[in-house]
Give the backbone structure.
Amino acid sequence: MKSLLSLRVNGRQRDDAVSGNLLLVDYLREVVGLTGTKIGCDGGECGLCTVLVDGKAQHACLTLAGSCDGASVETIESLSDGGRLNAIQRGFHEKLGAQCGFCTPGMVMAAEGLLRTNPDPDEATIRTEMASNICRCTGYVKIIEAVRFAADELKSETEAA
């Protein structure tokens, strides 16, 4: 049985008929066509599918699309502005936070959620908040440096404004 799902995806209003058991990750990839959100474990263990739902990081593989009715969902595709990387994406680039790159969209979205709620996290907070995202290629040092870089960049941008 299908029901009408009405939500904002990356700032655009969408109304789609979806089945009650459709996962948010499948909705984003198959219905909306946004493939930046990756599928990894399909069980909420790896964090590849992290998106923001009403500004909070959430695993899309554990979220029914229908539960997001009326919500705002942001994916990795929402972060750049006209091809210009945002502070977190720049941090991952500058600090070599992306190794093979497969986990990067989920890591970036988790960092985005963190920095929206805590713009100046210490290393322990970054480690705790990023713990739900797994990277098989690195020891996380570069990822932590990337998030710290982004926090410093955002702080500088705020002070300059």
Q: What stands out?
A: The mean pLDDT is 95. Helices lie at 24-32, 87-94, 104-117, 123-130, 141-160. The domain at 2-78 is CATH 3.10.20.30 (Ubiquitin-like (UB roll)).
